[in-house]
C-alpha cells in the first residue's frame, strides 16, 4: 500500500549548478514486522517501508529498495549534484 509519510528533509538552503550536495531524510513510520500479536491474540499485519524515492525538480535523483532489516524511522543520507542554482 502506498501512502505518504511524514518525512523531514534537510539539504543546503542554496547550491550552485553542478555542486555536490548532501540530502538527509528522516521518514517517520511505525514499522510492524508481522510477527507480533495484539491483546486479542491476533497477528498485527506487516507494515514496512519498501521503497524510498527522492525527486529533485521532478527528476528522480535517488531510489532505495528497503527490506525488513530497516529501522522504524530510518535516516537516509545521500549525495547528489545540484541541477540548477538556487
Q: Main attributes?
A:
0% helix, Immunoglobulin-like, mainly beta, 86 residues, two-stranded antiparallel sheet, three-stranded antiparallel beta sheet
Distance between the termini: 35 Å
Based on the structure given, which CATH architecture is correct? Sandwich
Low-confidence stretches: none
State which percent range the strand residues make up: 35-45%
Give the tally of structural domains.
1
Oligomer: single chain
SSE blueprint and pairings:
Elements: E1 6-10, E2 20-28, E3 51-56, E4 59-65, E5 75-81
Antiparallel strand pairs: 1-2, 2-5, 3-4
Written description of the protein model:
This protein is mostly beta strands. It has a single domain, classed as Immunoglobulin-like (Sandwich), CATH 2.60.40.10. The protein contains no helices and five strands. The strands form two sheets. It has a three-stranded antiparallel sheet with strand order 1-2-5, with no helix packed on it.
In short:
The protein has 86 residues and is mostly beta strands. The chain is built from no helices and five strands.
Amino acid at each position: 500500500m502506498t501512502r505518504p509519510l511524514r518525512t523531514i528533509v534537510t539539504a543546503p538552503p542554496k547550491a550552485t549548478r553542478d555542486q555536490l550536495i548532501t540530502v538527509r531524510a528522516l521518514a517517520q513510520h511505525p514499522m510492524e514486522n508481522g510477527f507480533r500479536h495484539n491483546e486479542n491474540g491476533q497477528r498485527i499485519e506487516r507494515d514496512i517501508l519498501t521503497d524510498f524515492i527522492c525527486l529533485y525538480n521532478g527528476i528522480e535523483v535517488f531510489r532505495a529498495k528497503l527490506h525488513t532489516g530497516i529501522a522504524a524511522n530510518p535516516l537516509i543520507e545521500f549525495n547528489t549534484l545540484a541541477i540548477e542554482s538556487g
